[in-house]
Amino acid sequence: MAIAKAERLMNLALCLLGTRRPLSKRELRGSIEAYMEAGNDESFNRMFERDKDDLRELGLVIETVENLDGETGYLARRDSNRLPPVSLDAEEAAALGLAAKVWQQARLAGAASGALQKLRAGGMPEAGDPYEGQHSAIEPRIPVHEAAFEPLMLACRDRRPVVFDYRKSTAARPETRQVEPWALECWRGHWYLAGYDRDRGAERVFRLSRITGKVKSRAAKYTAEVPDVVTVRETVASWAGESADRSALIRLRAGAGYPLRAKATAVREGADGWDELKIPYGHGLDAWLVEFGPDVVVVGPADLRADVVDRLRAVAKA
């Protein structure tokens, strides 16, 4: 079925691009086999209108022209559907090549590779990545394992509100959230959704790994203004603990927690198999510390210690 529709769209596009004068529905029906096989005029009209809308959504500029007899015709002028030559310098081409590699483990891998091939066909040099073959042992990767990623990505793109069940780290059971999604951001290997929580009337950040069940989209308009990209990233950074305004003191088992050691501003090695670290403390640090389980003990401040204990108890009850 999908192949038949793709072939039908291709034939319609070729007809509209290949004509010098507008073609009527009657002429198009007599030129395309799939339209000839349509059972009746009503069936053909529905099929043609859907195909025309699909081609326009794909970017084809289709003009509607009425001739002297009052008959409506259609054509796609070549000059209106011709893209300008692609002109990229070496740094821009390298950035695109690098970006395509980032998505190799995600479901966007096919789209990224296809886009890169189209750009190369349009003029981007084949050697777009100057680092190709030189640093093959280290490549940027953004793993995407959460099932919620793709529907949320589409909802962010199309500006559609969503509904999903979300389990906070301190809660034993998930609860339903109604969100106007703004953007997806990746921090410390985890994906986060930033958006407007309708029930709470405020912006919120959700970690995708805590979304349970299916993400359902809603055909409704946004009620809150969408901030710019920089502001959204700052929101996620603050929630994920990147924007720290004080320090925390933790004990870390020797030989464990290397990401924490990389963040530490001071480290004192202990003789009992535990090291003492001072690390930046911001919103979301408690959730990160819980991931290291029994290898981490929070010394202070007291509110951070209490938050970590609460999260661990919630996990134990789940």
List the keywords.
alpha+beta; 318 residues; 5-stranded antiparallel beta sheet
Describe the structure.
With 318 residues, this protein is an alpha+beta fold. The chain is 37% helix and 23% strand. The chain contains eleven helices and twelve strands. It has a five-stranded antiparallel sheet. A four-stranded antiparallel sheet has the order 10-11-9-12. The protein has a three-stranded antiparallel sheet with strand order 1-3-2. Helix 5 runs antiparallel to helix 6. It is elongated and about 90 Å long.
Write the layout of secondary structure elements.
Elements: H1 2-18, E1 23-24, H2 25-29, H3 33-36, H4 41-57, E2 63-66, E3 72-75, H5 90-102, H6 109-121, H7 149-158, E4 162-166, E5 175-187, E6 190-197, E7 202-207, E8 211-217, H8 229-239, E9 246-253, H9 258-263, E10 266-268, E11 274-281, H10 285-290, E12 296-300, H11 302-317
Antiparallel strand pairs: 1-3, 2-3, 4-5, 4-8, 5-6, 6-7, 9-11, 9-12, 10-11
Helix pairs in contact: 1-4, 5-6
